[in-house]
Amino acid sequence: MGNEAKRPVVAYLGLGGNLGDVPATLRAAVDALAALPGSRLRAVSRFYRTPAWGMTAQPDFINAVAALETTLAPEALLAAMLEIERDAGRDRGGDAPRWGPRTLDLDLLLYGDAAIDLPGLQVPHPRLHERAFALLPLVEIAPEAVIPGVGPARAQLEAMAITGIEALR
Questions:
Q1: With pLDDT > 70 as the criterion, what percentage of the chain qualifies?
Q2: For this structure, is 90 an active site residue?
Q3: What's the pLDDT score for residue 141?
Q4: Count of domains in the chain?
Q5: Is 42 a catalytic residue?
């Protein structure tokens, strides 16, 4: 696949972090995403404070979801997202614990209605339907979003507890 899709696609990206000035880092990441070639920011959810997931002995996270209309192919979009993470000080090195503290985490949640299963790139995000911290901001900006192979995002969210998640703005 090349660097560009044939026509614009709306991708939904999860943003999060729990180290440093996270709101400022998330705003800078949104600006960087909006500046990607062939891309236009369509919406950004409110920021949500959420309890740490996976490895719980760490500070709460702040999470959001952005809708990006883009002509970038999924692989090129992911590469750009990883570069934005690195620019924000994210270390995905071998010593970094999975689900550990981080300055910035960007996840490609949905890429249009595509189902992609490549090494290093799975869309929809394989645990999206299990994570209220991603579903809540997704449904806020895309109430009719459908998770390929799973169903409506709203139905997934309604079926789970969202205790401990607090809207910040």
A1: 88
A2: yes
A3: 98
A4: 1
A5: no
